[in-house]
Write a structure and sequence with these properties.
Blueprint lengths: L1 H30 L5 H22 L11 E7 L4 H20 L3 E9 L5 E9 L3 H5 L4 E8 L8 E12 L4 H4 L8 E6 L15 E6 L4 E5 L5 H32 L10 E6 L5 E4 L5 E2 L2 H5 L4 H16 L1
Parallel strand pairs: 4-9
Antiparallel strand pairs: 1-3, 1-5, 2-3, 4-5, 6-7, 7-8, 9-10, 10-11
């Protein structure tokens, strides 16, 4: 039923493009350039163009897990309290982006820093092609600004790493049998403010997958059972990502390619002082509207990256 709904949505979008172009043609034939006919036709053509561009971008999402939801994890890196604040700023940026896309989100786990910001945060982004789009954000993000935490008002550079994995809802979907004997499950008290049972019951769950050493946690749900289900979803996703990375590494070795480790690379810089600029180092796309980017306007960087990736894959 989900697949059927997705196909219907695609057909409806194509029909809407055809309808808008047909209406534009009829408007010109009936009204011509008079009585606002040209302006109305231009509006309809522009709407059809925007919808067609969106469909063209959606055609990029044909890889195995592109249509899935995404699980985003952000870790503060070098930079002390500024890095923790930067991790929180990035989390807000992605959550705002998801809101603009009308995607639903849910925080799985977060670890507040001592003074300000977050040591780490993990959240779901539920929506069609969410993983296909957000995969472009995986890597290290660099912030340059006058630190609000420095009494001498010096310029600081801080880093935060973003990891994105596809949301996987069942073991069958990945063809991997996660055996209970391979799991070490621990419970602990949830952190954070609010809720009658917060910090009183051990509802939070931490799961360690012993063969791979992957550790996942969930503390935002009200019960151990709910947190366990969420943590298992995150574990499946990380196992899938591990398999994809191993597959890509083997292909790169066969091709004789030498690629930098993406996790340790700097994919984008956000400069707030002495000038304002956000630059993606993979595509060289840049903008001076830093405020809009930090408020969620990141399609400026996502689409060029997808187009570049497509050209490389085709080549």
């Amino acid at each position: 039923m989900k697949r059927l709904a997705d196909l219907r949505a695609e057909v409806d979008d194509l029909a809407a493009v055809a309808r808008e172009l047909h209406d534009a043609r009829e408007t010109l034939e009936v009204l011509g350039d008079e009585a606002g006919g040209a302006e109305e036709a231009d509006r309809l053509i522009a709407a059809a163009g925007a919808r067609l561009e969106s469909l063209e971008m959606a055609a990029n999402f044909d890889r195995e897990y592109d249509g899935h939801g995404a699980i985003v994890t952000i870790h503060a890196g070098a930079g002390g309290v500024d890095a923790a604040d930067w991790a929180q700023m990035l989390a807000r940026m992605y959550l705002r982006w998801a809101e603009y896309k009308e995607f639903s989100t849910s925080v799985v786990d977060e670890s507040p820093a001592e003074e300000a910001g977050l040591k780490s945060i993990t959240f779901f982004v539920h929506g069609k092609n969410a993983y296909g789009m957000l995969e472009s954000e995986r890597g290290v993000h660099r912030l340059v600004r006058i630190s609000p935490f420095d009494q001498q008002h010096r310029r600081h550079t801080s880093f935060a790493s973003v990891d994105v994995v596809p949301e996987i809802e069942s073991d069958e979907e990945i063809g991997v049998d996660i055996r209970p004997d391979d799991l070490k499950i621990e419970t602990y008290k949830s952190g954070g403010a609010g809720g009658q049972y917060v910090n009183k019951t051990e509802s939070a769950i931490r799961i360690t997958h012993l063969p791979s050493g992957i550790i996942v946690a969930s503390q935002q749900e009200r019960s151990q059972t709910q947190n366990r289900d969420v943590a298992m979803n995150v574990l499946r996703a990380k196992l899938v990502q591990r398999e994809l990375e191993e597959r890509e590494a083997k292909l790169s070795e066969l091709r004789g390619e030498r690629r930098a480790n993406e996790w340790g690379s700097q994919i984008r810089s956000y400069v707030l002082q002495p000038y304002t600029l956000v630059k993606d180092h993979r595509t060289n796309v840049e903008t001076g509207n830093v405020a809009a980017v930090l408020d969620g306007a990141i399609d400026t960087f996502i689409w060029p990256y997808l187009q570049q990736r497509r050209r490389v894959e085709v080549a």
